[in-house]
Amino acid sequence: MESRIKLLGHPIHPMLIVFPLGLLATAVLFDILYVISGNADLATFSYYALIAGVVGGLLAAVFGLLDWLKIPKDTRARRIGALHGSGNVVVTGLFALSLLTRWGNPAFLPNTLPLILGLLGAVLALFTAWLGGELVYRLRVAVDDDANLNATNSISREGIAEVRT
Question: I need a surface site. Which of 43, 115, 140, 155 has the fewest CB within 10 A?
Answer without folding.
Answer: 155
